[in-house]
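Below is how a single chain appears once it has passed through the pipeline. First comes the sequence as given, then the structure the pipeline wrote out for it. We keep one example in the README because the format questions we get most often are answered faster by looking than by reading.
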Amino acid sequence: MHVFVNGENKEFSDGLSLEQLVNELMLPGVRIAIELNGRVIRRGDWIETILNDEDRIEIVHFVGGGGIRRQEQQAGAGKIKN
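Resulting structure:
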């Protein structure tokens, strides 16, 4: 079966679930969101969502950071030095 993951054509065995895809791609199960054919799939539905030939999957990784600096700036506590 051929599917597109973030625009890249990939081949997998038939009957693959989204959860199995995440495992095969060695992605962390947390801090990612998956869109299948234009629809966001909830994490709880990954195990029962079976992929089909030509499906289009977008996987987004959430990245944290910046919160401490932003809080300092809002409080007027820190200034950026060069």
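The chain has one domain: 2-75.

See the next section for the split statistics.
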